[in-house]
Amino acid sequence: MKLILLGTTGYHPSDQRQTACFMIPELGIILDAGTAMYRARDYVCTPELDVFLTHAHLDHVMGLTFLFDVLKDKSVSRVTVHAAADKLQAIDEHLFAEALFPVKPPCEFRVLSAPVPLARDGRLSYFPLEHPGGALGFRLDWPGHSMAYVTDTTAIKDAKYREAIAGVDLLVHESYFPDSMSEMAALTGHSTTTPVAEVARAAGVSRLVLVHMDPQEEEISEKIETARAIFPQTFVGFDRMEIDF
């Protein structure tokens, strides 16, 4: 199983990073649809695509408006966007408002109301995260493979979602702020480095990849050193990074 990190920053894109979008090409699965969504075109290889949205903040959904180009000359018969009901309503009423984007992209909406079956005997489950406006985290399981995606939340050592991600092979977790900005992290609903590493250790995951970082953050050596001192199998994600799990 291969995960492609199409976009690894938050808030706005930079010259090095686009905003949140992650893809498992062989299964046609996309997690969040930030500004990196246009890159999905390079990896589309299935007749159907399922896009799972953690929440509806613009840096996670604006890439839905790129679907016309993503699908151009591709043999894709169905694109389904999965999210909480209120998030889908917000996207339909605002992102796809006639004054902003008058032609709705070729996709159907499906409300997340139960775990979603995935190809190869897999399953996607979800759990609530603390974030302004609300957000979801995702866990994806297959026989012999598992991963979790946690973004836009304030990590704490005893986070409620720790049990939901327990034992996964790969944890992709946001780490927007350095430890010195813990107050800003709590205010905005984002995470600092040390608590994320503590969550990974407490949850017994195999590997941790840090994403959704500050687009203005140029030096990441301190972040990786801080995290690895707590959880050695920590890596910093970068755009178009490919991870086998």
Topology overview:
Elements: E1 2-7, E2 21-24, E3 29-31, E4 48-52, H1 58-61, H2 67-71, E5 78-83, H3 85-95, E6 108-111, E7 116-118, E8 122-129, E9 135-142, E10 145-150, E11 170-174, H4 182-188, H5 193-203, E12 207-211, H6 221-230, E13 234-236, E14 241-244
Parallel strand pairs: 3-4, 4-5, 5-6, 10-11, 11-12, 12-13
Antiparallel strand pairs: 1-2, 1-14, 2-3, 7-8, 8-9, 9-10
Descriptive account of the structure:
The protein has a single domain, classed as 4-Layer Sandwich (Metallo-beta-lactamase, Chain A). Helix content is about 20%, strand content about 30%. The protein has helices at about 60, 65-70, 85-95, 180-190, 195-205, 220-230, and strands spanning about 1-5, 20-25, 30, 50, 80-85, 110, 115-120, 120-130, 135-140, 145-150, 170-175, 205-210, 235, 240-245. It has a 7-stranded mixed sheet with strand order 6-5-4-3-2-1-14. A 7-stranded mixed sheet has the order 7-8-9-10-11-12-13, with helices on one face. α5 (about 195-205) packs parallel to α6 (about 220-230). About 45% of the residues are buried.
Number of helices: 6
Range of strand content:
25-35%
> Which descriptor suits the 3D outline?
globular
The biggest beta sheet reads: 7 strands, mixed
Classify the helix fraction into a percent range.
10-25%
Question: Order of strands in the sheet with the most strands?
Answer: 6-5-4-3-2-1-14
Per CATH, the superfamily is Ribonuclease Z/Hydroxyacylglutathione hydrolase-like
Order of helices and strands: EEEEHHEHEEEEEEHHEHEE
Let me know the average pLDDT.
97
How many beta-strand elements? 14
Q: List low-pLDDT spans.
A: none
Number of domains: 1
Which CATH class is shown?
Answer: Alpha Beta
* Level-2 CATH architecture: 4-Layer Sandwich
The Cα radius of gyration reads 17 Å
Distance N to C terminus: 6 Å
Query: Within the CATH hierarchy, at the fold level, what is the topology?
Result: Metallo-beta-lactamase, Chain A
Derived structural class: alpha/beta
